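hey can u check if this looks right to u? its 149 residues, i copy pasted from the old doc so theres a chance i mangled smth
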Amino acid sequence: MRAVIQRVSQCSVTIDGSLHSSIEQGLLILLGVEDTDDTADIEWLSRKILHMRIFDDEEGVMNKSVTDISGELMVVSQFTLHASVKKGNRPSYLRASKPPVAIPLYEAFLKSMADSGLHVRAGVFGADMKVNLINDGPVTILIDTKHKE
């Protein structure tokens, strides 16, 4: 699994011109799934995101997690995170899972995040979404469960 984590002060998802979901302070999580992902990837990624200390404490130091601040989460599926640009100018998405594999893993990830007790919102898998956000900081972090660094 690959995720792009952005610390946000606001985030919303619009589909077909209508507001679908929104959050205030918290994290936007763009999530890409590949066929080799499984529940171990979900568990590791969920734990990492929920406990990552990227929010300011009282002294302005990034020392608090989204859990510590009772932040909100917006999860949006994004198969393009698995794009390969090795050859040519058109990205290849062969590593991105097709819906029969990706949807159950995406939904399991959503459940894992919801089990944290935080307010979780999401886009719609496969929909043409417009994501509007205010990146706070900016803070943007890339995570790949296959390259844990």
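Residues 99-114 form the longest helix (16 residues).
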